[in-house]
């Protein structure tokens, strides 16, 4: 038998690195395998990094991590073809320590974060694809890689291999995901000098802003667009359920071009030069799409376990927390010398008790609901825009007259009833 580790972590994204970091810090002999040339080389995110979950792993990380900008403003645009109703929050408390969230570029950030796991003692091996788990007597005992004599053994294997998790699938932990359980997102990084970014987004030096784009950004298909400020680049992207793209016969890059050229977005990007194009899947099926995440000698973390909160565009933080919690359970299993499913199940219990499990439960029906009733995106957002235009146009008509017209435009009594029912249903799936 070749070399044996306490743990093998497959995949150096936020979930895998967090897990490897904590394991190594706790004294475990850990191997972190990454198929990319370096951690982050294959990874895609809008990308908002959430301070709290990162600080749970590396306190004060913001003092040395390659971050783009601390976010001081979050805007939301409900877009129609030539208009948008915008709302948001700007708070200067987010511009100073301890900060709230940051924009990051994953190619830089993941590389730095993996370096921290290596400093703790993890062994990182890049350019290595894990082909399958080695299973003996119903227990995962290692992995087979694409390297010559590429079998490696461990007491426990952590699957942090991202959204598709072919390894989890081959263990029978989950089925092939349906097109309405995953979103396909495409994005571009646009180079623009930092002063122009600050002027356009009304920011002071080293402050950042995020804008989430709804409605016409996705041509009314369930999904969102996003526009985030980095140091001297902008991240512009759009993601919709794969089923939406198939149904509407739209190619992902066509949707990205559409949102880039939308009159509400174009002025922000003007004069910028695209320097990178990225595309990736996002697991959006929620709790109902989650498969098994614990077995004998194996646990699943991050996107591989479908841990994404699509409503709040959170993923990296769920990934980090799941990686950290998995490591805690593995270290305790190491003390007991027992890596059975029963012992490792403590990870699942802790995860479901944490904000990760709680939020997954809270939004368990949201994707399915909004997918089933497309009127929220393709009818109600245009309706809100028409009402705003009506109310804010000063044309000599009284405000009462305008209110009456808005009310009339909501449609027949039957249509109004449907609207009220949809509002109630939306509240129910989000409450
Ligand atoms: P990943 O980051 O996907 O990492 C998996 C790693 O495993 C990769 O490095 C991959 O190369 C490696 N790997 C896969 N298979 C193998 C194998 N067989 N052998 C070896 N290595 C393997 N989340 C946020 O928190 N904020 C955002 O703003 C945000 N925006 C997003 C925007 C887009 C366009 C997308 C696509 C996602 C966004 N997310 C966001 C979600 C977030 O990116 C994910 O939830 C997060 O990256 C999950 O981390 P992970 O470590 O589980 O998986």
TrEMBL record:
Residues 368-431 form the FixC-like C-terminal domain. Keywords: FAD, Flavoprotein, Oxidoreductase. GO terms for molecular function: oxidoreductase activity. Gene3D superfamilies: FAD/NAD(P)-binding domain (3.50.50.60). It holds the Pfam family ETF-QO_FixC_C. Its cofactor is FAD. Its EC number is 1.5.5.-. PANTHER family: ELECTRON TRANSFER FLAVOPROTEIN-QUINONE OXIDOREDUCTASE YDIS-RELATED (PTHR43624). Belongs to the ETF-QO/FixC family. This is Electron transfer flavoprotein-quinone oxidoreductase. It comes from Sutcliffiella tianshenii.
């Amino acid at each position: 038998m070749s070399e044996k580790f306490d743990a093998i972590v497959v995949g150096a994204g936020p979930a895998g690195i967090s897990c490897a970091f904590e394991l190594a810090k706790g004294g475990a002999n850990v191997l972190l395998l990454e198929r990319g040339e370096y951690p982050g080389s294959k990874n895609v995110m809008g990308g908002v990094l959430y301070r709290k979950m990162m600080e749970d792993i590396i306190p004060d990380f913001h003092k040395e991590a390659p971050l783009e900008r601390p976010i001081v403003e979050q805007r939301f645009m409900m877009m129609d073809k030539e208009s948008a109703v915008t709302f948001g929050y700007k708070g200067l408390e987010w511009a100073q320590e301890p900060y709230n969230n940051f924009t990051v570029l994953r190619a830089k950030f993941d590389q730095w974060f993996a370096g921290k796991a290596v400093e703790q003692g993890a062994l990182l091996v890049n350019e290595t694809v894990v082909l399958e788990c080695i299973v003996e007597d119903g227990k995962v005992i290692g992995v087979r890689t694409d390297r010559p004599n590429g079998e490696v053994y461990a007491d426990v294997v952590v699957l942090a291999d991202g959204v598709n998790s072919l390894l989890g699938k081959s263990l029978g932990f989950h089925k092939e995901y349906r097109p309405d359980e995953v979103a396909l997102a495409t994005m571009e990084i646009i180079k623009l000098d930092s002063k122009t970014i600050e002027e356009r987004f009304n920011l002071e030096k080293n402050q950042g802003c995020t804008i989430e784009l709804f409605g016409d950004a996705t041509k009314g298909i369930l999904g969102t667009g996003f526009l985030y400020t980095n140091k001297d680049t902008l991240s512009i992207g759009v993601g919709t359920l794969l089923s939406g793209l198939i149904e509407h016969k739209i190619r992902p890059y066509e949707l990205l071009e559409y949102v880039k050229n939308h009159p509400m977005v174009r002025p922000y990007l003007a004069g910028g030069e695209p320097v990178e194009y990225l595309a990736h899947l996002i697991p959006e099926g929620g709790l109902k799409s989650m498969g098994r995440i614990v077995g004998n000698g194996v646990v699943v973390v991050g996107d591989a376990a479908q841990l994404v909160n699509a409503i709040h565009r959170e993923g990296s933080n769920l990934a980090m927390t799941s990686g950290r919690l998995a490591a805690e359970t593995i270290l305790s299993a190491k003390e007991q010398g027992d890596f059975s499913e029963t012992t490792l199940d403590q990870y699942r219990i802790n995860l479901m008790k944490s904000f990760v499990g709680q939020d997954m439960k809270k939004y368990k029906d949201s994707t399915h609901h909004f997918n089933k009733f497309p009127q929220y995106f393709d009818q109600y957002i245009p309706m809100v825009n028409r009402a705003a235009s009506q109310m804010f146009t000063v044309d000599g008509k009284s405000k009462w007259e305008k209110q009456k017209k808005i009310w009339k435009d909501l449609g027949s009594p039957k249509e109004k009833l449907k609207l009220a029912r949809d509002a109630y249903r939306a509240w129910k799936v989000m409450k």
